[in-house]
Amino acid sequence: MEALIVLLPGDGIGPDVTTAAKQVLEAVADKYGHRFTFREELIGGAAIDACGDPLPPATIAACEACDAVMLGAVGGPKWSDPNAEVRPEQGLLKLRSTLGVYANIRPVRIYDELAAASPLKPELLNGVDLIVVRELTGGIYFGEKTRNESSASDLCLYNSYEIERIVRVAAKLAAGRRGKLCSVDKANVLETSRLWRDVTDRLIAAEFSNIELETLLVDAAAMHLLSRPSDFDVIVTENMFGDILTDEASMLAGSMGMLPSASLGDSARGLYEPIHGSAPDIAGQGIANPCGAIASAALLLRHSLGLHDEAAAVETAISVAITNGARTADIAADDEAVESTTEMTDVIIRCLN
Ligand code: IPM
Ligand code: MG
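Above: inputs. Below: predicted complex with magnesium ion.
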C-alpha cells in the first residue's frame, strides 16, 4: 500500500526517536512491499525558533493531508520560562485538537526480562497488561485560562458527548480484552467528575452490559496502580488524570522510554507519539530509548494503515530484541551492556527481518 506519513521530530530527544521510528517503518515497507512517503515538519520549540509559532500553518496543512502523524516530543528549558507567551506545548495541544484526536490509547506492556528495571517488586508485575485510555482534547488542558499579577485560573470543562465518546472507545477495547473497565475521576470534589461518573454509569449500563465497570477516585487509583497493577484491564480517565497516571504506569514497564501511544479520532488518521517527553538532560547524546517511539510506529501501522500483521511483527521484533538482551541505558541493569539509540534500533530492525 501507499501512505504519506508526516514526521514531527520536535525537541530534545524527539529527533533521535523519530528517526528510529522512521527507520523501522522503512524496514517494514521494504519487507512487505509498501510505499511510505515521509514528510518532515516543524513543531514545538524547534518551530518557535524557526518562525515564532509552535504549530506553523505548513505543519497543520501537512498533518491534515496525510495518513498518519509520527511525533517525537516537544518542550525544553529553553522555552519554559513561566512568563513566556509562546510555548512548545501549545503546538502539541493545538495539533491534538485540530486533528480531533480525542482518544489517547496508552498500552502498558510488561516484558518479564525488564522486571529488574521497575522499582516495583517483581511478583507485583506478574500478569500486568493494561491500557490507559486518556481523554485528549478536553478538560483543564483546553479550558479558558486567566492570569494577572496575583492570581490565575484554569477552567476544567467537559460536555457529556466528550465523555460518552471516550468511554465508548474504552469500553469497546475492554470488550475485546478481559471485559474490565475502570473509570477514574475525582467525583467527591469535582463537578466535571460527577458528570463523568453519571454519563459513564448510564452508558455502560445501556450499551455494554457485559463489561464489568469499576470506579476509582484518582488518588486511590494512583495507589492501586502500584499495589495491584495486574487487576487492571482498561482504565478510562480525563485528560489531566490520564497524563499523570500514565507516567506512573510507565514505572511498571521499567522506563518512560518504553511506552507508546496512539491518539485517534473519528477518522483513520492518527497521531502517534511515545509518552515520554523531550528529556533535555540526555538530548543529543544518542542514548535515548527508541522502544516507545518504535512501538508507536507499530500502533500507526495498525490503527491508521490497517496493517495488522506488520504492526504485530514490529511489536514482536521489540520483544525479541529485549529477550535477546538489547538494552538502552534506562532499562539496563548494572552488569548489562548498553546500546545507543541507533544500535537498539538496528537490533530491532534485524529482529524484524
Ligand atoms: C504527554 C505530555 C504532554 C501532555 C505535554 C508535553 C503537553 O506530557 O503527552 O503526556 O501533558 O499531554
Ligand atoms: Mg505526560
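Residues 243, 247 surround magnesium ion (ligand 2) (CB under 6 Å).
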